[in-house]
Design goal:
Elements: E1 9-12, H1 18-25, H2 33-49, H3 51-62, E2 70-71, H4 73-81, H5 85-104, E3 110-115, E4 118-126, E5 129-133, H6 142-155, E6 159-163, H7 174-182, E7 187-189, H8 193-202, E8 212-214, H9 219-227, E9 233-234, E10 242-247, H10 253-264, E11 271-277, H11 279-295, H12 299-309, E12 311-315, H13 318-328, E13 332-336, H14 340-344, E14 352-355, H15 361-366, E15 392-400, H16 402-418, H17 422-429
Parallel strand pairs: 1-12, 5-6, 5-8, 6-7, 8-9, 10-11, 10-13, 11-12, 13-14
Antiparallel strand pairs: 2-7, 3-4, 4-15
Helix pairs in contact: 2-3, 2-8, 2-9, 4-7, 5-6, 5-7, 6-7, 8-9, 10-11, 10-12, 16-17
Length: 434
């Protein structure tokens, strides 16, 4: 079986040491100060020097010499036209499902009368311009383009721009460009990392300033997003991929192990935990995880993630497992239990929940139509996954009749007197005799 040298966490949840509990539940605090400092330097450089800084970053970090930062529209379109039939079919199916789900999730305007003659309304207004970031580096992520751009379009955003790192030839991944064409992105820029975040936050000679930045990225991207949050809205702070699988005796251990490996292959810092009900289920999962890791194409990354943040933990019942998960607040939660619907009712803190073994996390990553831009590091306690709500701002308005104004005047004046604001009191009381 997998030993202590291969899995960071093992054994019964109740027997975890204080250090292990701290590592499990405080993972968002493990921030590398050097990354933050480097990201801050890049952000300030791009803010000060604009396009010139972005070109230097492309040469230094991506090995690309850029004549222009913006990718021509014709190039973006050709990427879609030249995509393989299989890739285009998959992209189109994903895009269709994302659009269907996110249009249905759109918020609606409403009015309420708090008392006779006093009407309060709330109206969702789409943002003017949104920036989507799609990572490069270890792999290209056309799915992230669709997950960011299509919900923005569903919400009615007027302009969507995309930033993605260039390859040495000066262009982002062809698959990313194909997704951008399919999602009807307005403008694409071959820039990546913290520099791209700064460009979208502050604007440069070529890159327009946006109202919100969304999309996943590496540690430098995550740090840069937090550095510019006073200038532009972001989706949520993000870190490495996370998965908790809750598995009882009915679970297929090979399915659990395969799901864990799938998330572990993202990144050596990925967090993958199985919470098994009973010792027999835990042992089966550990054995299956050995086999799945050996077979994995990205086995080295998987082993590093399991040794650093992976675990198979044991509990006595499903309710204990859900209590653990609610405290952990994972990005992804897979319920491999005999009654997943009943278990779902007790789930409070998770980026997205998958009900049953057939609901593979990979399906949600690419094709179901749900969004894969999700909170990590325990922030599912207070943040939600990306949705149309991220692409609107609410305009609140108030309507007051003459009778209601006279009724409100004296009580509001009393409040204002108590707060030593005579101007407020006078503004209210002028309506008492009208």
């Amino acid at each position: 079986m997998i030993g202590a040298e291969t899995l960071r966490f093992s054994g019964a949840v109740e027997d975890l040491s204080g250090a292990d509990r701290g590592a499990l539940f405080s993972r968002a605090a493990n921030e590398d100060a050097s990354i933050v400092q480097r990201a801050a330097a890049i952000v300030e450089d791009v803010r000060a020097r604009g396009d010139a800084a972005l070109r230097e970053l492309a040469r230094a970090l991506d090995g690309a010499s850029l004549d222009a930062l913006e990718v021509p529209r014709a190039t973006v379109r050709r990427a879609l036209d030249s995509a393989s039939p299989a890739l285009r079919r998959a992209l189109e199916r994903s895009a269709r499902n994302i659009a269907t789900v996110h249009r249905a999730f759109m918020p609606t305007a409403m009015e309420v009368e708090s008392e006779p003659g006093v009407v309060i309304g709330r109206r969702p207004d789409p943002l003017q311009r949104v920036g989507v970031y799609a990572p490069g580096g270890r792999a290209a992520y056309p799915s992230s383009v669709l997950m960011g751009a299509i919900p923005a379009r569903a919400a009615g955003v007027a302009e969507v721009i995309l930033c993605s790192p260039p390859a040495p030839d000066g262009m982002p991944s062809r698959a990313v460009l194909a997704a951008a064409a399919l999602a009807e992105v307005d403008r694409v820029f071959a820039i990546g990392g913290a520099g791209a975040i700064a460009a979208m936050a502050y604007g440069t000679e070529s890159v327009p300033r946006v109202d919100r930045i969304v999309g996943p990225g590496n540690a430098y991207v995550a740090a840069a997003k937090l550095l510019v949050v006073r200038q532009v809205a972001i989706d949520s702070p993000a870190g490495p991929s996370e998965l908790i699988v809750i598995a009882d005796e009915s679970a297929d251990a090979s399915v659990v192990a395969t799901e864990m490996v799938a998330q572990a292959e993202h990144d050596p810092l990925a967090c993958v935990i199985a919470v098994a009900v009973g010792e027999a289920a835990a042992s089966r999962i550990e054995r299956a995880l050995v086999d799945a890791t050996v077979r994995a194409d990205r086995a080295e990354i998987v082993r590093e993630a399991l040794a650093g943040q992976g675990g198979v933990l044991r509990v006595s019942c499903v309710s204990e497992a859900i209590a653990f998960s609610n405290r952990y607040a994972p990005e992804h939660l897979l319920l491999c239990v005999s009654d997943a619907e009943a278990a779902l009712r007790s789930v409070r803190n998770a980026g997205t929940v998958f009900l049953g073994e057939r609901a593979s996390v990979a399906f949600g990553d690419y094709m179901t139509g749900a969004n894969h831009v999700l909170p990590t590091g325990g922030l599912a306690r207070s943040y939600s996954g990306l949705s149309p709500l991220d692409f609107v701002r609410w305009t609140t308005y108030q309507r007051v009749s003459g009778v209601a104004a006279a009724s409100l005047a004296n009580d509001v004046g009393t409040f204002a007197d108590a707060e030593s604001l005579p101007g407020h009191a006078a503004a209210a009381r002028q309506w008492s005799a009208r």
